């Protein structure tokens, strides 16, 4: 593919600001604009997707809850979790939403393989799992034939807030992160690995990662 893929490292950034920028980018992009991947972490919060049910918020307490326009149920974001927002023109790439879900899952599985972690997706429960524990969650929205939102990969984080919800709407679902499975996992390295895996799965060459919005 001749077009470039723009990949941005945004560090730790407010959820609402990022969400607004995603919507603006998707609403105003043209057929000539490059696809983008944003890599980042969020301060602690729960996000409730369009299918979300109040009963899955068990005890959010002092952690904010934001209702969002992605698919799926409730999940937690926090420092040490690598979030990848994937904004691609599906029609231009010749893929559908289900294909993009597979791209995201396969990119995570490939990243985990590079860290000596054996993982797998589930056909009936989007995301990536290790020994029935969930290590990555997915949630997408498509507008004007283009995707936004994306995936969250648990790298090295406090998992206890997941106990305050039914993650992704599943009671008793156990979560895990990479550090618990491989003590050598480092977020900065995983960021590059995931960016490269996503690019490869989408048919792009490996991207240079830009710092910030410009």
TrEMBL record:
Signal peptide: none annotated. It catalyses: octanoyl-[ACP] + L-lysyl-[protein] = N(6)-octanoyl-L-lysyl-[protein] + holo-[ACP] + H(+). InterPro entries: aa-tRNA-synth_II/BPL/LPL (IPR045864), BPL_LPL_catalytic (IPR004143), Octanoyltransferase (IPR000544), Octanoyltransferase_CS (IPR020605). It is found in: Cytoplasm. Keywords: Acyltransferase, Cytoplasm, Transferase. The active site is at 168 (acyl-thioester intermediate). Its EC number is 2.3.1.181. It is an enzyme of class 2 (transferase). The record marks 134 as: Lowers pKa of active site Cys. Residues 31-206 form the BPL/LPL catalytic domain. Pathway: Protein modification; protein lipoylation via endogenous pathway; protein N(6)-(lipoyl)lysine from octanoyl-[acyl-carrier-protein]: step 1/2. It holds the Pfam family LplA-B_cat. GO terms for molecular function: lipoyl(octanoyl) transferase activity. The keyword Transferase applies. Substrate binds at residues 70-77, 137-139, 150-152. NCBIfam families: lipB, PRK14342.1. Belongs to the LipB family. HAMAP family: LipB. In the reaction, the free carboxyl group of octanoic acid is attached via an amide linkage to the epsilon-amino group of a specific lysine residue of lipoyl domains of lipoate-dependent enzymes. PANTHER family: LIPOYLTRANSFERASE 2, MITOCHONDRIAL-RELATED, OCTANOYLTRANSFERASE. Catalyzes the transfer of endogenously produced octanoic acid from octanoyl-acyl-carrier-protein onto the lipoyl domains of lipoate-dependent enzymes. Lipoyl-ACP can also act as a substrate although octanoyl-ACP is likely to be the physiological substrate. This is Octanoyltransferase. The lineage of its organism: Bacteria, Pseudomonadati, Pseudomonadota, Gammaproteobacteria, Oceanospirillales. The gene is lipB.
